[in-house]
Amino acid sequence: MSERKYAILGTGALGGFYGAKLQKVGLDVHFLLKSDYEQVSQNGLIVESKDGDFTLPQVNAYNDVAKMPKCDVVVVALKTTQNHLLSKLLPPVVKDDGVVLVLQNGLGIEEEIADIVDKVHVIGGLCFLCSNKIGAGHIRHLDYGHITLGEYAAGYSTIGITDRMVQIAHDFQTAEISIELAEDLLLGRWKKLVWNIPYNGLSVVLNARTDELMADTYTRTLVKQLMYEVKAGANSMGRTIPDSFIHTMLDYTMKMKPYRTSMKIDYDECRPLEVEAIVGNPLRKAQALGVNLPQISSLYHQLKFLDGRN
Amino acid sequence: MSERKYAILGTGALGGFYGAKLQKVGLDVHFLLKSDYEQVSQNGLIVESKDGDFTLPQVNAYNDVAKMPKCDVVVVALKTTQNHLLSKLLPPVVKDDGVVLVLQNGLGIEEEIADIVDKVHVIGGLCFLCSNKIGAGHIRHLDYGHITLGEYAAGYSTIGITDRMVQIAHDFQTAEISIELAEDLLLGRWKKLVWNIPYNGLSVVLNARTDELMADTYTRTLVKQLMYEVKAGANSMGRTIPDSFIHTMLDYTMKMKPYRTSMKIDYDECRPLEVEAIVGNPLRKAQALGVNLPQISSLYHQLKFLDGRN
C-alpha cells in the first residue's frame, strides 16, 4: 500500500469523487471543505456512482489548511475562479518535495502554481468526468472518470513520463480510476481546449446544448472554425493538433447525448465562469507569441460581458 | 408641385411615416399594404410625431401591386427579409424610366434590384429614423428622420449626384424630411454598417441595449474590433472609412439614450432578423475579394443560429 498522503482542495463533484475513491481503497486522504465542512466532518461522504454506490461515514475533513497535515500529493480540485486563493492554500499543505496535482480545465494553471510553490513538482490532470454535487458531501457520478496525467516543466517544455507520474497513476489505478500518462502536458491541455472552448463558450452565449449546436449548420461551422483557431493557438506554442483530431471531436460530439456544458451549468446557477482559464489564457498565450485568434477573442469578450452581468 | 407619382412598398413604421409626410404636402402617393389593408383603406393613416401629429383620413391603399398605377418613384420600405418578393412586386409598379428608392439597411440590395428592373434607376437611401408602428395604419415617430441618398451604378461605381436625386430630394424636403445627397452610395452603406453590425448583432446575441454594451469594457472593446473589421470590409471594395469616423460612432453611442436596436426588437417580437442584408452580404462581399472578417463571421453564424431557433 502507498505511503503517500493525499490532500483534496475542493471537495465537490470532482474532488469529492476522486478523493472518496482513493480513500475507499485505503489511501490516506485529507479533504478541505468550505460550506460543507460541518456536514462532512460529522457524516462523511456519499457517492452514488454508475460503477457502484458507496459511503464513507468518516473522513478527514478540514476547513482550514493550517490544520491539515503536510501531504505528498495535493489535488487542486477547485474551480479555476478560486485560484487566487492558491497562494495561501498550497504552501501550508504540500511537502517540500511533494506534488501538486491540478485537476482543472484550461491553460497556464501549472505555471502559476509552480510560481507559488517553487520546490514542488506540478502535474496536470485532464479529467473526463461527468459528476454533480447534489448536496453537502453527496456526489452523483454519472459517467466517465478517466484522467490523463502530464508533468509540468518550466515553460511547458516536454519532460516525458516521470516516476512521480507512475506512482500517482498506480494509486489512482488501485482506486479503479482509469489513468493515461502523457509525455506532453501542454499538447494535452490544448487538445482538451479543442472541445472546451467552442462548446463551453457557445453554450453560454447562445443558451444551447451540444446537440443544438451540432444540429444547426451555422453553429456547426462556427464550432469547427473555433477548433481550427485552437489548433493555431497550439501551433503558436510549438504543438501540433492533427486535423483528424478535430474531425474526431466533431463526430464524437455529434453522437453524444444532449449535453449541458459545465460552463453553462455554472452560468445557469449564477456561479462565476471559468472564462480566464479556458478562454482568456489560451488567447493571451497565442497573442503573446504574435498569433491572433479573432473568433476566440470574440467569444472571450462576449463571455466576460455575460459573466460580469450574471 | 411635383408631377412625380410615388409608390410605397411596405406601409409600416418607416414607409408609412415617409409616405404620409409626402402625401401631407400634396404629393401623389400610393401605399401597398398587407395585413393592415382593410383598416388603412377605410380609415387612412395616423401619424404621431414629435414634429406634430397628423391624420390622413383617405389614402390610396392597395393589397396588390397589379392594381397600383405605374409610379415614377417606388419606395422599397419592406424589411429586407421580404426582399425575395421584390421580383414580383417591382415590375408592375415602376415606370420604365422610373426610380426604385431603397430605404433599407444593409449591403447589396441595390444590385439585386438593378437585376430585377434593368431599365430603371436605383437609388439607395440611408435612413436615420426612430419610429414604431403601434397599430394598423398608426405610426409613432419618436426621433430623427434624416435620409442620405446615393444613386446606384453597376458594380457600385461612383456616379455622383444625379438630377433624379435632386428631384427626389426636392420632394422630400418639401415634405419636411431632411435630406443629404451622397456622391458615393457604397461608402455611405459601409459607414452605416460601422454602427449596424456591432450594435444590432451584439444586442441580439447578448440580450443587451446599446448602453449596456458601451458600459462594459469587454463589449466596448468587441464593438470597436467589429467596427475595424467593417472598415476592412469597406477597404476591400476600395472605400476608406477614416478612424475618426469610428471614434465618432463610439462617442455618439456612449452619449445616446439607452437604445434597443431594430434587430433586437425584431428578435424579441419573433420576426425574422435582417441578418443577410446587414451582416451576411458585407461578409460575403469582402470574402469574395479575399478579405476575411472573422469576428463578423462569428457574429453572423451566431445570429443565423438564433434566428433559425426563434
From TrEMBL, chains A, B:
Q: Which UniProt keywords apply?
A: NADP, Oxidoreductase, Pantothenate biosynthesis
* Involved pathway(s): Cofactor biosynthesis; (R)-pantothenate biosynthesis; (R)-pantoate from 3-methyl-2-oxobutanoate: step 2/2
Catalyses which reaction? (R)-pantoate + NADP(+) = 2-dehydropantoate + NADPH + H(+)
State the EC number(s).
1.1.1.169
Q: What class of enzyme is it?
A: oxidoreductase
Gene3D superfamilies named among the record's database cross-references = N-(1-d-carboxylethyl)-l-norvaline Dehydrogenase, domain 2, NAD(P)-binding Rossmann-like Domain
- One Pfam family, short name: ApbA_C
Q: Name one GO molecular function term.
A: 2-dehydropantoate 2-reductase activity
- General function of this protein: Catalyzes the NADPH-dependent reduction of ketopantoate into pantoic acid.
Similarity comment: family membership: Belongs to the ketopantoate reductase family.
Q: What is this protein called?
A: 2-dehydropantoate 2-reductase
* Species for this entry: Anabaena subtropica FACHB-260
